[in-house]
Amino acid sequence: MRMRTLAPVQEVPLIFERSRSGKRAYDVPPLDVPPVDLEAAVGKDRLRRKAPLLPEVSEPELVRHYTALSTRNYGVDTGFYPLGSCTMKYNPKVHETIARLEGFRDVHPLAPEETVQGALEVMYRLQEALKAITGMDEVSLAPAAGSHGELVGLKIIAAYFRSRGERRTKVVVPDSAHGTNPASAAMAGFQAVSIPSDERGSVDLEALKAALDEHVAALMLTNPNTLGLFETDIVEIVRAVHDVGALVYYDGANLNAILGKSRPGDMGFDVVHVNVHKTFSTPHGGGGPGAGPVGVKAHLAPFLPVPIVRAVREHALERDGDGDAAERAVRYRLDTDLPRSIGRVRGFAGSFGVLLRAYAYIRSLGAEGLRRVAEDAVLAANYVMHRLKDVYALPYDRICKHEFVLSGRRQKAYGVRTSDIAKRLMDYGFHPPTIYFPLIVDEALMIEPTETESKETLDAFIEAMRAIAKEAEENPHLVRSAPHTTPVGRLDEALAARQPVLVYRPSAD
Ligand SMILES: *Cc1c(COP(=O)(O)O)cnc(C)c1O
Hints:
Number of strands: 12
CATH class: Alpha Beta
Strand content: 5-15%
Bound molecules: pyridoxal-5'-phosphate
Largest sheet: 7 strands, mixed
Number of domains: 1
C-alpha cells in the first residue's frame, strides 16, 4: 500500500519568527494630499503610544509563508474526504466563476431593488427550486447554516403554537440525532426529550408513541437517519406525531441521499432546513459562510423569517417574437411585511454568494442530474460498505443510503481505538471519516463517500482501510502512534481545546 506522496513536511515558522525589523513587502506612493495632524484630528488620547506588533518581512517571504501554510490544509480539492454526515463533495469550480461575475459580486445589500433585479431573481428561483426539491410550500433563504435553520425552524414552531394559544414545552429527538438538534431545541426554549433507536437502527415506534403527548411541540428527525438508514416507517412516525397535534421537523443534512427520489414534504414533514453547503456543493468547512434555507408547509408560512423574495407580475407586456417581454413584466422584491414573522435572523437577505453557488449547482445538474447525484452517492456508499464489512464490524447490516456506520470494536480487542484508525488514515493520504458519531454505535466510524469520487479513489480508500485493519492486528503500536507523516503527530486535544495558544508572545531576547 502506497503512503502519502505529498512533499516532505517542513516546519513552517510563525511569520513573527521570520520578522526582521525594517523589512517591507509594500511600497506606498508619495503623499499627494495635504498631511493632517493626527493628534489634532482625533485627539491625543486616541493615538497609540506604541506601534502595533506586526511582522516585518519581504514580499517573497510573505508569499512563501502563506503558500506553505495553504498546502497544509486538507480539503476536497486535495483529496478524498469521507466525512460522514457532512457531505464533503467536490465543489465545481464553475460556481466560483459565476460567483465572481461583477453583477453578482459587486451588488450592495442596500442597493435599491430596481437595480438588483437579477440578484433577486436568482434568490427567487432558488426558493422555487428548493420548494420543488423538498416538497414544501414556502422557503426562506435567510438562515446562515443548518444549525441556524434548526433554531429558526423551532422558533417558527414555537410561534405557531403561541398563535394557537397552546403551550407546548417538549421536543422529541432520537438518540442517534446530531448534537445540534437537542442544542437547537434548548436554545429555542424547549426541553429536548431523547428516545432510543430500535435494533434495526430506526426510530423505535413504541418508544416514540410513549414519549408523545400534548406537551410535545415537535419531533426532529433526519431521513435517512444518521446511520445512513432510511426510516421505512416514516409515514407512521409522522402520523403518530401529528395525532397529538405536534409538528415534524426534517434535518436536511442527509438530503443528498434522496434528491429527486423522495421529498420531506411528501413524507409529511412540516418544517425542513437545507444545508446548501452539503447537498448543493457550496464550499464549507473552516467556519466560512454557509446557508441553511428553511422550508415550511402553508400553515407555518406566516411565521417565516423575513425577507422573502416575491415575484410581482406588474402588467402583461406585449410579447415580442420569442416571448421575452412577458418575462420582463415580472419584478422581484424583498417582502418584509409579514406581521406574524419571527423577524430577521440574519443581516440583509442572507448569504447571497453561497446561495448563488447553490443555484448554479441546481441549474447545471437539472432534475435528472440531481436524481443521479442521489443514486451515485447511494451506490458509492453501498460499494464501500460491502467491501469493508468483513474486516470492520457493521452493526446495522442493511442496504444503506448515502453513508454507513462501521464499528471499530474488533480492532479494540488489539488495543486499537477508532481514533487511532482515523489518525492512521492520514498517513495513507485520506481525511479521516467522522468518528464517535452517532453516539449509539460503539467506536463509530461514519463514512460518506459522496457521488463525486471515482471508483479508483474509492478502491484506494478501501485498500487503506483494509491495510489498517491488518496493521491493527499485526502491529497495533504502529496504528496507535499514528500519524507518522504529518507536520504534527498526536496533540493533547483536551489541553489544546482548553488552553488554545492564540497570541504570539515574543521572547524576552
Ligand atoms: C451538519 C449537520 C447539522 C448542522 O449543520 P451546519 O450547517 O453545520 O450548521 C445538523 N444535523 C446533521 C445531521 C448534520 O450532519
